[in-house]
């Protein structure tokens, strides 16, 4: 298998992980196809902050935004999920009764 093929498989797996989480938690989202749509690809490249771009090349998907506000890449999403902080990562309020809401309540107490 070529390195490029492994990269594409890794990207697809990460995208499925993010989409699966959003769907399972009934978080509304709009998926933007950057492979088939040059305008979406250009928008993503222009809106990933300079300090979040790789040293060479372009940022790889998935890149996560809340409307036009950049929230992070897959690694940041994964870390937020591991720390029960995905809603905060996404710029959303955690629903009452969720693990994240419980963690936030304990931190505020």
TrEMBL record:
Function, in words: Appears to function as an adapter protein that bridges proteins together or proteins with mRNAs. May function as a ubiquitin ligase-substrate adapter. Additionally, associates with translating cytoplasmic ribosomes and may promote the expression of specific mRNAs.
Assigned GO CC terms: cytosol; plasma membrane
Record Gene3D superfamilies: Glutaredoxin (3.40.30.10)
Keywords on record: Cell membrane, Cytoplasm, Membrane, SH3-binding
Organism: Sapajus apella
Record carries keyword Membrane: yes
Top-level taxon of the source organism: Eukaryota
Protein family (similarity comment): Belongs to the SH3BGR family.
The protein's name in its UniProt record: SH3 domain-binding glutamic acid-rich-like protein
GO molecular function list: SH3 domain binding
UniProt-listed InterPro entries: Glut_rich_SH3-bd (IPR006993), SH3BGR (IPR051033), Thioredoxin-like_sf (IPR036249)
Subunit structure of this chain's protein: Monomer. Interacts with PFN1/Profilin-1. Interacts with ERBB2. Interacts with ATG12. Interacts with BECN1. Interacts with translating ribosomes.
Major subcellular location class: membrane
Subcellular location: Cell membrane; Cytoplasm, Cytosol
Database matches in Pfam families: SH3BGR
Keyword Membrane: yes
